[in-house]
Amino acid sequence: MFEAIIGLCLLSDPALCRDMLVPGYEAGTRAACERLLADSQSQSIPRPDPGPKVRFSSGEPRCAPAGPVASFGEVAPGVFVHRGMISDAATGNAGDVSNVGFVIGESVVAVIDSGGSRQVAESIYRAVRRQTSLPIGYVILTHMHPDHVLGASVFAEAGARVIGHAGLPRALQDRQEAYLANFGRLIGAAGFLGTEVVLPDSVVDQTAELDLGNRVLALQAWPDAHSGTDLTVGDPRTGILFAGDLLFDEHAPALDGSALGWRDVLARLQALPYQKIVPGHGGPLLDWPQAAAPLQDYLDVLIDDTRAAIARGDTLGQAAETVAQSQSDHWALFELFNPRNATVAYTELEWE
């Protein structure tokens, strides 16, 4: 398989370069790929827009053998899931630290989350193309965090509509500079080249349906919980729910919204008519609602310990060091995320 690529290099350090996939020009031979490029000469090949603080040079598109393909498993007919690494973003993983899925209908494909960099999203795109030539009609972003949204530009360039929670546009606008700077630092300039923030084309403020062609996905926006922008994606045909980071498995939970709200939403999720769930991290496919128990226990302890710390008169700094420590053996990356969770919970609960 061959594909179109463009070489990108940082102007500030021309030795830092990478080849960026140009979606839509895949072919079985180099000659066929080159014919597709020739036929598109009158069109403008998209160039990334990483913001005013990053400058790079780009070459002309050319055809090359297809690059790395993300590993996906078919967990049910037409439903594919990729398990991200249980890790923080780093040079060695390019931001491939969250779960991603795609669902194939009779007319179009929907991709659910997009990875933590354009480089990761390119490997996801190739995986979709290995399974089907149907158009990618939608990329659905389950919430605002960079490991889930920073690859969306690949699918937008392929013609997909970007879908998210009603609060997602404002959240991304407010955070895009910090997300790009922080993830770029963790991943490294070369691997992060071409990554940009893409705002949704359509938003969901309550519920919505997406028809993929004889297959309808059910989207539901949730109030403040893991974040303020959580959106779930259900496939009633297979009984599978994509929960985004409303559910964590193995990977320590990360709170960026409301501890009380998250506990309430988790209870409501358990009442939904799904038998399997894809968490934002871990799994990647778990029995539902049984898989809620570890996170429910963690949230109960987080809330109870925080209330106890406040009642004792502990400072925020003291609470961050002590709250929920009894859970430390149950979660990977606990020391990275739990102090943040305790801080958010303390700030929420101190005025009860």
From TrEMBL:
<feature type="domain" description="Metallo-beta-lactamase">
    <location>
        <begin position="97"/>
        <end position="281"/>
    </location>
</feature>
<feature type="region of interest" description="Disordered">
    <location>
        <begin position="39"/>
        <end position="61"/>
    </location>
</feature>
<dbReference type="InterPro" id="IPR050855">
    <property type="entry name" value="NDM-1-like"/>
</dbReference>
<dbReference type="InterPro" id="IPR036866">
    <property type="entry name" value="RibonucZ/Hydroxyglut_hydro"/>
</dbReference>
<dbReference type="Pfam" id="PF00753">
    <property type="entry name" value="Lactamase_B"/>
</dbReference>
<comment type="similarity">
    <text>Belongs to the metallo-beta-lactamase superfamily. Class-B beta-lactamase family.</text>
</comment>
<dbReference type="InterPro" id="IPR001279">
    <property type="entry name" value="Metallo-B-lactamas"/>
</dbReference>
<dbReference type="InterPro" id="IPR030829">
    <property type="entry name" value="SoxH-rel_PQQ_2"/>
</dbReference>
<protein>
    <submittedName>
        <fullName>Quinoprotein relay system zinc metallohydrolase 2</fullName>
    </submittedName>
</protein>
